[in-house]
Amino acid sequence: MKSKTERLFVIIIVSVHVCLALGHAATPVFESQEELQHTLFVRFIKHYQTLPGPDLPFAGYQSIQAPLYYVLAAVITAPIDETDFENVTSARNPYYGADIGGIGSDNKNLRLHDRSQQFPFPASPTVQSVYLMRLLSVALNTATLILSYLIYRILWPDRPHLHLAALGIAGFWPAALYYLTLAGNDVMVAFAGTLVLWLTLRQHQRGPTWQRAVGLGAALGIAMLSKGNAIFLALPLGAATIFDRRFWKFAPISVGLMILIAGWWYARNLVVYGELTGISLVFQHAPQQRLAPGEQSFGQWLWRMGHTYDTLWALFGIEIVPVADWMYRVFDVLTVLGFVGLAARGVRFVRQAAVDAAQRPALLQAGVVGLFALSWVAGIGYLMTVVGGQGSHGRHFMPGVTAWAAMLALGLDFWIPTLFKTRAALSFAAVYAMLSTLALTAFLLPAYQPLPAPANIEHPLNYSYENTAILTGIDPPELRLRPGQSSYLTLHWQAIRPADASLIVSLHSLDYNLFSGGVVVRRDSYPGTGNLLSTEWLPRQAWSERYRITIPADAVPQFVHLLTVNLYDPQADRALAVSGPSGPLKLPVVGRVVVGGPIQPFEPDFRFGGAIGLNRPEVTRANHQITVCLRWVALRQVDVDYTAFVHFTASDGTLLAQSDVQAGGANYPSSVWLVGESTLNCTTLAETALPPSGWQVTVGLYNLATGQRLPVIDRTGAELDSSSVTIKP
Q: Reduced to 3 states, what is the DSSP secondary structure of residue 487?
């Protein structure tokens, strides 16, 4: 590949990376891991013009971090007075987390965000300040990517296709794009750490000088002032120094300058807190975060590393915004192929008879890069020994993305024939770009936006709520679930005008306590599933709300519940009046939820219309009563609520007594039965109502609206007379 062509592709990758980074930076503020805590530290510096200490107000759980990022952020946001900070941070969404593992926008937002916070020109001073900090993060992240490219040129001077493959993976790693563009110090240590890696490899390539030693020492000082886990950069630096004697006489310059730049911070912690990290300040305010003796074991460490991988690729927000399962599987396959290919390269290298002098520099460089990647693993291991599971999040891997991308690119390249390596490298970069773009545009950004309303509503409604909003439809109008199961239901709305107060959508099942059915649906939410305040509605604005509905595990099975939708005003403690096309509605019923029972298919003795089966009716006598029990089974779905008749007749056909009830009972009609589901109905009659003998029981099904009976056949296929089953006790 020509160098001009390579530069063109590098420009394209970096440009797309910047666009995606800005897209991630446009997400609502304070919806990610600890962004609020990082902002509290910045505000503390701006307000007190000093660093946190035990005798000052607590500046948040991140205030023990090395201060470089926060000082820079305080400088660039100094002109902004965040007068609305308390209002922005206190607007908690009480319905947050209603659908933790699901895709969509069902209350994924921890906070309520009004129109003053909208990107790109928010009116809120607090949001302006956070967006400025995010722009700082985008700049540092972009600089980190450019440094990554320079590192790849050192690693593979004659293989430009690997430069592009690794750059594409590093630039389009979804979680890195997300966490390294938010307000926080991870991007600062990623930049500084990558700068240290580049300067180390460059010294090894060109030979150390005192000027380069000074540059490396300055970079190390910046890294140690960025985040304490930069101490684990001692692993790759130690290897580079030990195995290259040229470094030995220059190492004291680098170490000395690092201490000169960053040593004061750790010395201050030692004086103020009695230890180097300042973690005691966090434990003082949140003692529950301190691990108890023996709480951390090797088994727990391994289990928590599983959580690290789960959050490594694309799990956003506070681990509440996932992407599609197939995307995780693609990441899994690429990761496995990459590291298996890398291992295969290692085996092939070990099998060589000897390492010649020309290979030794490349071997040392590979070792330095590998140890750079592992240094962040060591950092996670240390965090987990201090704060347990909170330290296992995949974002702590992000500063090492440069090295991880290089390893994946080299491993994936192992499987590609020489003739196709360039095209394959560009394809790998394109695949990661596509996945990252999808993660942003199809999952992350929509999670914090109202769902667009469809052009055509399949099941329309026209319920008006006090001339404020119209419920225009529901999809589906009926849910069929069993206890413990979940599904989704969508409401479609159109605003008439802004509401006078902040309203709440109440999606409830009708209270059936009197009939032992219980309340199985109780979903409350701000409009737009938390993403649209009713006081900011615009006339004719349309949106949809997709709710996750979960039936309680202890719900009464085989019961039908009516669904109602209200708009509730919590300030006035009342629901808005509702009117439909025919006038006012006491109960705004919009659909129903069918709570089914277990599927228990059986071969019936009788078949009614080929749709409903019946076992031989059981007739019993006890306590001066006669009981007839009918066990039905649904053979196929029907849309009629059939009525079952049980007639007691004399031998000459005279009707002695009868019972006509809805098959399945009043709360579970035949139209909601699932195929293979069985129901049991029993009819009881006083023994005195019948003669001692000479009577029989006749059973059948009919359509109450038409009076027409369903024909019935027995096991032999013979059709029975009068479309009924006769049993003689």
A: strand
> Span 302-312, mean pLDDT?
83
Per-residue b/e over 84-121, b at no fewer than 16 CB within 10 Å? Answer: ebeebbebebebbebbbebbbbbbbbbbbbbebbebee
Q: How far apart are CA 383 and CA 81, in angstroms?
A: 34
What is d(CA 390, CA 36) in angstroms, rounded to the nearest whole number? 16
Angle at 166 between CA 163 and CA 168, to 5 degrees: 105
165 vs 161: CA distance, rounded Å: 6
- Strand bridging mode 522-525 / 574-575: unpaired
Residue 153 is predicted with a pLDDT of 96
pLDDT at 621: 87
Residue 686 has pLDDT above 80, yes or no: yes
Structure tokens at 490: 């969508």
pLDDT of 515 over the 70 cut: no
pLDDT at 215 over 60: yes
Taking only the tens place, the pLDDT of each residue in 348-373 is 888 876 667 667 788 889 999 999 99
Q: Phi and psi for 42 in degrees, rounded to 5?
A: -60, -45
DSSP 440: I
Span 596-629, pLDDT tens digits? 988 888 899 999 999 999 999 999 988 889 999 9
The CA angle 52-57-61, to the nearest 5 degrees, is 65
Q: In terms of C-beta density within 10 A (0-12 exposed, 13-18 middle, 19 or more buried), how is residue 477 classed?
A: middle
Q: Model confidence over 410-439: pLDDT tens digits?
A: 999 999 999 999 999 999 999 999 999 999
Map out the domains of the chain as residue ranges: 3-446, 460-595, 606-727
**What pLDDT sits at residue 133?**
98
Q: Which fold has domain 460-595?
A: Immunoglobulin-like (2.60.40)
% of the chain residues with pLDDT over 70: 95
Residue by residue, DSSP assigns 374-416 as: HHHHHHHHHHHHHHGGGGG-GGGGGGGHHHHHHHHHHHHHTTS
Give the closest residue to 384 by CA, choosing from 370, 398, 394, 371. Answer: 394
CATH topology agreement for domains 460-595 and 606-727: no
Four-CA torsion 307, 313, 315, 316, nearest 10 degrees: 130
Kindly report the backbone phi and psi dihedral angles of residue 38, in degrees, each rounded to the nearest multiple of 5, phi listed first.
-65, -40
328, with CB counted inside 10 A (0-12, 13-18, 19+), is: middle
C-alpha distances (whole Å) from 710 to each of 610, 674, 724 are 9, 19, 8
CATH number of 606-727: 2.70.50.60
* Closest alpha carbon to 41 in 32, 50, 30: 50
Mean pLDDT across 646-657: 88
Q: Coil, strand or helix: which one is 616?
A: coil
Checking DSSP bridges between strand 478-481 and strand 589-595, what pairing results, if any? parallel
CA–CA separation, 117 vs 89, rounded Å? 12
What is the CB-side half-sphere exposure of residue 371 using CA atoms within 13 A?
22
Q: What is the pLDDT of residues 59-75, one digit of tens each?
A: 888 888 999 999 999 99
